[in-house]
Amino acid sequence: MGRTANENRSPVKTFSLITLLALSLVCSPMGWCAAHPGKVYRIGYLSLPPVAETPSGTRAAFLGAMEKLGYVHGKNLIIEYRSGEGNVELLPEAIADLVEQKPAVIFAPSTPAALAAKQATRTIPIVMFASDPVANGIVASLAKPGGNITGVSGVQIKLNAKRLEILKEAVPRASRVAVLWSRAHPSHAQDLMAIGSRAKELGLALEPFDVTRIGDLQAAFARMSVNRPDAILVMFDYRTVRFRELIAEFAIRNRLPTIFGSRGSVDAGGLMSYGPNLSEIFARAATFVDRILNGADPSTLPVEQPTRFELVINRRTARTLGLRIPEPLLLRASVLIE
User: Fold this and answer.
1) Cα–Cα distance for residue pair 142/302, rounded to 1 Å
2) Closest alpha carbon to 192 in 209, 214, 215, 175
3) pTM (predicted TM-score)
């Protein structure tokens, strides 16, 4: 089970607080930002992974936030789900079918889904969550997205230096760190170069492994098995997220500490993660959907960025690795998985 800790010590405002403030500013006393009684709303939801009958944690956060805004799925809200079934190549077909349903808004909660949605329609408003929407060409800028797309950016660039620091604190003896990245990600190569100087300051040598495809990942595992690093840093990307179970299993089998970009990888057996809270991001995305349903122009809604980052530590994995996490690091953790 996860245990939340130190929530009140964080000086950074959470999305939930920002949501309340934003709604108080933009919603009139007549309830401008809320579902209108008697009206039925139809939205699209384009998912890269399969859409399970039981909502994932992030989808549940989105649905919960929509319900708080007055939209109840099956009552006054119809959600048309379409999925790439985990295959990026299937997204164009999925979004084409979704566009034919003529939803009022499409929610595209991943970089590949947002890119596919942008290619499919220039008229239906799109609320996206993407790791780096400017670098990926999804929006012109965060302040002035333009076009029919807005939403929340989960930009990860510059966070990898912080992850290196956390990894070094957790494993002081570490001197060689394998970095799993993707050549297909628009920011990874730049960020890989940027963290080089921080690695030197920490006394770490970086060994990058491009894991864009499953064959690349298998080759990386083979090389690491022969020339074992001291730890693994995994750069955030939908490809590395897709491989998270494989990476976590390999790391545990070879007694290698890991740090990822999102909590899901720690739930899958990774040692640590540092990054934005994805459930909060999905909940925030619901307020964009609400504002657009009530007449807002997506081209004028600035793309928002996360304001709070969480450190998640899997103590069960630490025990399996025979690793004692320093107490100061445990005290700073937002979530401890026992």
Assistant:
1) 6
2) 209
3) 0.83
